[in-house]
Each structure stands twice: as C-alpha cells, then as structure tokens.
C-alpha cells in the first residue's frame, strides 16, 4: 500500500529512537592465501633474494639514461644489472611520450626481465594513468574524478577506464595506479580533484565501476590490467589541508566514511591498494598494523597486493620520524602489512629485508606471503603467458571515438551554480561580440590539471593543438560573432583593468575564465582558497561594465568566490574537465548542451569554514536563541557556510518531483524491505538529464548522525515534458544502519526521513522481538529482546 507524504519533522516532535546495537563485527581470521599452482611452484623454487626482489619496485630513473623521471629511454645495462643482482620485479612511471617509444622501451625492459631472472619471471609495470592514458602521447584525456563525480554517472567512469586501457595496455602498462578512492572532504587538499567528491556512495559507485571495467574489459585481450585503489585510507582529510599530513579520524568515522569506497572495490575484485602516505591520529599508515592488517585484511577481506606510496618506508625515518633508521622502518612497514616497497630509487630495501629475515625478525612465511601475493597478481593478469607488448593495434591509440567520449564526459561534468534571470544560454543569434578574459581563457593546461602528460602537467605549448582552448571553442561555437580575448596584465605584470572595463562595455557579455594552474601533491599546497586578488579585480572590472558576466571556475578545488559571485550573472563550476572541457563549456554557454552536473562536494562560501553536506546537526547552523533571550536575531538564525550544497546544479529545463510514496510505514526487522517511488517530470521545454538523489536521515541516533546521507542515485534522460517513476528499494541493514568503530552495523529502532528532490516522507524501523527474529538471507542473523528491554542486541554477521 502506498502511503501519502508525512508531515515535515519538527524539532521536538519526533518520537524517541531506541538503539539496538549489533554485537559482532565482520571480522575473520585472515584466510590462508590460495595461490595458484604456478605461484606455489615458483615460491618453492625461489631464493629469499628472489622473493625480496619481487617485493621491490623501482622508478624509471633507475633504468634510463638520464636518471630523470620524464625520460622514457632504457639503459639496458642498468636494467639488466638490477634484475640480475637484485631480482627487481616491478618498475614504474615515466611521462607522456609517443606510443611507439613506450612500446620499444617496454619490450626491451621485459626482454631483460625474462632473460635475467633465473625463473623467467616477468616484471610488472606500474603507471599513473589518472584520467585516461595520461602518460601516453595523443590519447584521450578525460575529466578528472571530481568532474566524473559531478556527472553522477558511473557509465562515464567505465568509459574513462576503458579508454585508459585501450590506449595503454598494449604498450606494456600492466598496472594502472587508479582509481583514487579517497573522499574529497577537505577542499584545501591539493589532491581534492583526484577524488569523486565528498560522498562515500558516489566514490564507491564510480570507483567500483572504474575498477571493474579496468580489470575485466576483454577488448584488450589477451592482456589484463590490475587496478590500484588509492590511497588506503583516510589520506584525503588532513587536518591542516596540506598533502601527506596528519588526519584526525575517529574509528567510527573511518568505518562510516572512508571504508565504503575501498570495500566496494575490494568486493568487486580490486587487485591492489596503495597506502596513504600520511598519518591517522598520529600513526603513519605505512606503519599501522591496525589499518593494514586488522582493518584491510581481517575486516575488509582484501587478498591482493598492498604497495607503499613513493619512498614511504624511508619517510618513516626522514619525515615522520617514527623509526630511527631504515631498517626499523622496513620492519615496521612489513610487520604492519606492506607487500611491496615503491622504494623507488634505491635497492637498500632488498639488503635490509634479507638481514631482517636472517636475524629472525621477519619469517620466511611472511616473505612468502607478500611475494606470493605479487606473483599471484602477475599470474591473474596473464603476465606469464603474455609478457610482451604488441604493436599491431596501435591504431587504437588516438582513436577519435575515445576523444569524443572524453568530450561527452566533460559535458556531463559541469555544474551550473547560478543563472540569474536566465543569463545563460547566450543564444548565438543574439551574440555579436563576446569578451573572454582570465588566466584559463586560452589555456589547455588549466583545463587538465596535474597528472596530464606529466606529474605536474606540462608547459602550455606541450598540449596537442587540436585540443581547443576556451577561446578557440567559443570562436567555433559563435562563428558569426566577434570573440575577443584581452590580456589582463601587461608584460611587466601591471593589471590592465581599465581596458578590460572598456572592452566589456562594447561586448554583449563577458566570459571570465578564472581558476588555477595545474598541480598535485605537496606542490599544490595552499594556505588560502580565496580566488587570487588579481582575478577578483579582473572579475569586478568586467562586472562594473554592467554587461552580463559568466564566471567560470576552472581548477582542482573550489576557489572562494564570494566577492565576485553576487555580481556574476551566471556561474559555472568547470573543475578539471580535460581535453573536452572547452568544447563542453562553449556548448553550455551557447545552449547547445543542457548542463546536467550536480556538485559532488559542498562549495564553501568562506575560506575559514569548510563543511560537508553530511555534517552533524550542530555543525552548520547558528541558532542565536541558544544563547538565551535577547540574542535572537532573525536574519542570523541559519548562517550557511556553503555557497552551494552537495547535489545542487541548475539546468536549462526544470524538473518537478511529486507523489513520493512508500510501500509501508514501518519496517520490522533487518530482513524487511521498503519500496519508495517518486515521479520526476521534465516540466521545461527542452530535453535534459537529471541525477535523482535519494537521501536518508536517521532522525535520532545514539551518536550524532549526519543530517542526511545519500543512499541511492540514478541519472536519467528526460525529453521535454516527459515524466518517469523512479524507485529506491530500502534495505534496513544496508541503508539504515551505520557502523561502529569496529565496523559492526548499528541498526536503530526509530524514525527515518527520506528525501528526494522536493519530496519528503518518514517511516519507522522497528527491531524484531527475540522470539520472531529471523535471519536475513546472507545478511543478518540475529535476535532482539522485547522492546521494553533497553539492553537489546542484534547479532549481525553482515557485511557493511
Ligand atoms: C602519489 C601516488 C602515485 C605515486 C607514483 C605518489 O607520490 O601519491 O598517487 O601513484 O606517487 O607516481
């Protein structure tokens, strides 16, 4: 029976919830490894040194001619020496060079590995293809993950993964260091853009879609590729916002927010994880047995390879100072659960691990475990059968169809934050003259950010000329109009604001392409998110003309734009949309593309106050009446620190949500199911796509619960006037529970609020009395004592 909407929940009008804590976590002893016969045979024949060599990963600079990272040339003598003397089993990295150069390099390196290794074990090559095959020349550069998050469309994450391997697997790139499964919670963090945003479900859904496509695509057959989920875990919320610094994360929060994206990918077969270079609660993750063994292996059931991040064993000594020397650090890391060390410059790891075994501090069995996991990964991706790259499918690289997909992904990844009096679209028929200004107006690098062609991006002239800049894309989009770009500084750096104001007065509208230059990791650390002063002045000069201004925020994290937001007619958050970014932006400005992105994070309004949409009840409101009589001041009651909320985004059409109905008003026991349906209609005059986001609130929790959490989403295309009924099947254990610090699901008796679009409904969850408790198939087993008994417990063998 469908129930009508229930009244809005008023403070104080909510029935008290009672908590039924679940008592068993999903913990198990680590299952003994099930290595393939090949791996078992190899382990039986290998020397200790050979096994340690498998656990060692060196950077390209150790085997190329110049000793620098970007040089994809092979010094055969160096490579042969390292494989012969140290049995090195893995190499990494490089930068974008033409496919044929990669092919030559990989083939020669693999030949050396097979020849010099006594048991002919192939090396595995790891590479940072982060948004497309970004370290191969001429490939499709997709939007970064933060943009894919804005699309709320897992199909785009799959396409990005597919393009990545179609354009690199044949070149001997066996191990892709993606996806980033961290949560974009702290907007200062210089790797914010590498995440799918702040929501665990979005990160889990898109990250898993990426992982599955990368690891199971058969078009690259006979090859297979291993994904690497990174950076396990809690890397993305450093207290001071800087890269690789301490995060303070309570266990409960670690379980509820940071675990799900990794858990989902692991449950779908993720073959490797890379470890967080920072610290959690003061403990470096590389030295944390609690995280790398108890959580990752015991609770989460991960069976694959755990690789360190860059030089991180060494950093335990040099930077984090938790070990007096490299030997202690190496012991700590391996004891904690590291399988492979990205050393990445030295072989001292090989010597030290051998000494630790000889001294009895590490057992042979421990070494076998890690070497076995690495060999198993090599075996599972077919490296023993197909170790060599191939040259007969190079025409796949640079395929225009993949570029077209990158453009399509960029179209869905932009978010229209403001559109005052329908300033956009600027229909070509109405535009005679457009002024385009700002640091990103004629830039390809700024649209792509870090990890494009090279670690920190490359100088502007290194990007392909057939990738349009915004200026070029606008000229294409408005062939009849004069599209003018003016510099806003002269050669001495002096601002040219009067000429900008004057030109703005002559134009029909001004496009302000603002934002950031490429960066990643520590080189992107910032102490102020505020839009740089010169860009604020530029925007204000344009706005002073009185002409419509379209402000476009380009960059890896949201600049604080409060001072120029008010005066802007329209604002588009463009993030880092990649090679298709300019085309997508020009089409959105002209109206050819109807924007459909929604923010995958909370856009902060103030540099000094960052919050996330799933904050606790007391975190983002200022109710002055709490201070007593005389302090109430109507306007200040709710002072939001958000410029725009998670999940918001405008369109050129309008959607109406109606008729939210629930199949029942009460869910009894963890096996019960509830179906929610809602009608969504495109009430405007043009087609569009709408991401439908379903949020749940646990109204009263035993611990402070988020004001709402996204529990389900889907994106649908709507023709003008079309309406569709959409469904969300609510499963109590999955959707209503939250984990405690040990990962045990807590399912609370009480009221829940469901929200979708403008609609809201409430329902109750009631635990089963002891006598009638029935186990949910494969999910929960448990019993609950009668409702009057406050010590009620449910035993759950469930996964969270
Ligand atoms: C980054 C990783 C990357 C690795 C290899 C590290 O500095 O944190 O994300 O995969 O380098 O380049």
UniProtKB/TrEMBL annotation:
<keyword id="KW-0326">Glycosidase</keyword>
<dbReference type="GO" id="GO:0016787">
    <property type="term" value="F:hydrolase activity"/>
</dbReference>
<feature type="compositionally biased region" description="Polar residues">
    <location>
        <begin position="788"/>
        <end position="800"/>
    </location>
</feature>
<dbReference type="Pfam" id="PF14310">
    <property type="entry name" value="Fn3-like"/>
</dbReference>
<dbReference type="InterPro" id="IPR036881">
    <property type="entry name" value="Glyco_hydro_3_C_sf"/>
</dbReference>
<keyword id="KW-0378">Hydrolase</keyword>
<dbReference type="InterPro" id="IPR001764">
    <property type="entry name" value="Glyco_hydro_3_N"/>
</dbReference>
<dbReference type="InterPro" id="IPR013783">
    <property type="entry name" value="Ig-like_fold"/>
</dbReference>
<dbReference type="InterPro" id="IPR017853">
    <property type="entry name" value="GH"/>
</dbReference>
<keyword id="KW-0732">Signal</keyword>
<dbReference type="Pfam" id="PF01915">
    <property type="entry name" value="Glyco_hydro_3_C"/>
</dbReference>
<dbReference type="InterPro" id="IPR051915">
    <property type="entry name" value="Cellulose_Degrad_GH3"/>
</dbReference>
<feature type="region of interest" description="Disordered">
    <location>
        <begin position="777"/>
        <end position="800"/>
    </location>
</feature>
<dbReference type="Pfam" id="PF00933">
    <property type="entry name" value="Glyco_hydro_3"/>
</dbReference>
<comment type="similarity">
    <text>Belongs to the glycosyl hydrolase 3 family.</text>
</comment>
<dbReference type="InterPro" id="IPR002772">
    <property type="entry name" value="Glyco_hydro_3_C"/>
</dbReference>
<dbReference type="InterPro" id="IPR026891">
    <property type="entry name" value="Fn3-like"/>
</dbReference>
<protein>
    <recommendedName>
        <fullName>beta-glucosidase</fullName>
        <ecNumber>3.2.1.21</ecNumber>
    </recommendedName>
</protein>
<feature type="domain" description="Fibronectin type III-like">
    <location>
        <begin position="690"/>
        <end position="759"/>
    </location>
</feature>
<dbReference type="InterPro" id="IPR036962">
    <property type="entry name" value="Glyco_hydro_3_N_sf"/>
</dbReference>
């Amino acid at each position: 029976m469908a129930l009508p909407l229930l009244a809005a929940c008023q403070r104080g009008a909510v029935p008290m919830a009672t908590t039924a804590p679940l008592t068993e976590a999903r913990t198990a002893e680590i299952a003994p490894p099930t290595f393939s016969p090949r791996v078992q045979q190899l382990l039986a024949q290998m020397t200790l040194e050979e096994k340690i060599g498998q656990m060692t990963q060196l950077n390209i600079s150790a085997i190329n001619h110049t000793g620098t990272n970007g040089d994809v040339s092979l010094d055969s003598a160096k490579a042969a020496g390292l494989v012969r003397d140290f049995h090195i089993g893995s190499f990494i990295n490089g930068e974008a060079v033409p496919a044929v150069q990669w092919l030559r390099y990989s083939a020669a390196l693999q030949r050396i590995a097979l020849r010099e290794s006594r048991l002919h074990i192939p090396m595995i090559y790891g590479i940072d293809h982060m948004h497309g095959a970004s370290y191969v020349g001429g490939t499709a550069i997709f939007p970064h993950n933060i943009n894919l998050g804005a699309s709320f469309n897992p199909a785009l994450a799959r396409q990005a993964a597919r393009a990545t391997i179609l354009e690199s697997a044949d070149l001997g790139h066996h191990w892709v260091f993606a996806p980033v499964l961290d949560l974009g919670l702290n907007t200062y963090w210089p790797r914010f853009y590498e995440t799918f945003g702040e929501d665990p479900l979005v990160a889990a859904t898109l990250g898993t879609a990426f992982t599955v496509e990368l690891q199971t695509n058969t078009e690259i057959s006979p090859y297979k590729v291993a994904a690497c989920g990174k950076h396990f875990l809690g890397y993305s919320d450093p207290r001071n916002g800087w890269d690789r610094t301490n995060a303070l994360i309570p266990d409960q929060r670690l379980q509820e927010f940071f675990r799900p994206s990794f858990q989902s990918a692991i449950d779908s077969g993720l073959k490797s994880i890379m470890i967080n270079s920072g610290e959690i609660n003061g403990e470096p993750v590389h030295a944390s047995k609690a995280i790398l063994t108890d959580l990752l292996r015991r609770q989460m059931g991960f069976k694959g390879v755990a690789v360190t991040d860059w030089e991180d064993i060494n950093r335990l000594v040099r930077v984090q100072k938790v070990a007096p020397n490299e030997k202690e650090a190496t012991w700590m890391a391996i004891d904690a659960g590291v399988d492979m060390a990205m050393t990445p410059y030295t072989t001292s790891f090989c010597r030290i691990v051998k000494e630790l075994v000889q001294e009895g501090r590490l057992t042979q069995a421990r070494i076998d475990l890690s070497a076995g996991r690495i060999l198993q990964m090599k075996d599972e991706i077919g490296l023993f059968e197909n170790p060599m790259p191939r040259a007969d499918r190079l025409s796949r690289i640079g395929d225009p169809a993949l570029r077209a997909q990158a453009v399509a992904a960029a179209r869905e990844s932009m978010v229209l934050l403001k559109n005052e009096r329908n300033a956009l679209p600027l229909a070509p028929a109405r535009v005679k003259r457009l002024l385009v200004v700002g640091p990103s107006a004629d830039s390809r690098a700024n649209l792509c950010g870090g990890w494009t062609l090279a670690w920190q991006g490359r100088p502007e002239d290194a990007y392909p000329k057939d990738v349009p800049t915004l200026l070029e894309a606008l000229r294409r989009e408005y062939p009849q109009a004069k599209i003018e770009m003016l510099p806003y500084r002269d050669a001495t750096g002096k601002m040219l604001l009067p000429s900008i104001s004057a030109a703005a007065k002559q134009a029909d509208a001004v496009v302000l392409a603002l934002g950031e230059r490429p960066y990643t990791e520590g080189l992107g650390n910032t102490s102020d998110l505020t839009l740089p002063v010169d860009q604020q002045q530029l925007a204000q000069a344009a706005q002073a003309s009185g002409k419509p201004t379209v402000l476009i925020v380009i960059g890896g994290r949201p600049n604080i734009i409060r001072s120029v937001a008010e005066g802007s007619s329209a604002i588009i958050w463009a993030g880092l949309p990649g090679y298709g970014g300019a085309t997508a932006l020009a089409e959105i400005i002209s109206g050819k593309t109807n924007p459909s992105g929604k923010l995958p994070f909370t856009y902060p309004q103030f540099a000094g106050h960052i919050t996330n949409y799933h904050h606790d009840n007391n975190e983002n409101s200022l109710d002055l009446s709490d201070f007593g009589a005389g302090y109430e001041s109507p306007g200040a009651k709710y002072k939001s620190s958000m410029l725009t909320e998670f999940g918001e985004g405008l369109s050129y059409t309008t959607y109406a949500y109606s008729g939210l109905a629930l199949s029942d008003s009460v869910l009894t026991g963890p096996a019960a199911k509830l179906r929610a349906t809602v009608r969504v209609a495109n009430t405007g005059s043009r087609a569009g796509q709408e991401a439908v986001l379903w949020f749940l609130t646990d109204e009263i929790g035993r611990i402070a619960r988020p004001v709402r959490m996204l529990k389900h989403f889907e994106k649908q295309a709507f023709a003008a006037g079309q309406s569709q009924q959409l469904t969300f099947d609510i499963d109590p254990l999955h959707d209503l529970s939250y984990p405690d610090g040990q990962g045990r699901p807590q399912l609370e008796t009480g009221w829940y609020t469901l929200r979708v679009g403008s609609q809201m409904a409430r329902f109750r969850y009631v635990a089963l009395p002891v006598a009638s408790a029935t186990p949910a198939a494969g999910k929960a087993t448990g019993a609950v004592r009668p409702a009057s008994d406050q010590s009620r417990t449910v035993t759950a063998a469930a996964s969270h």
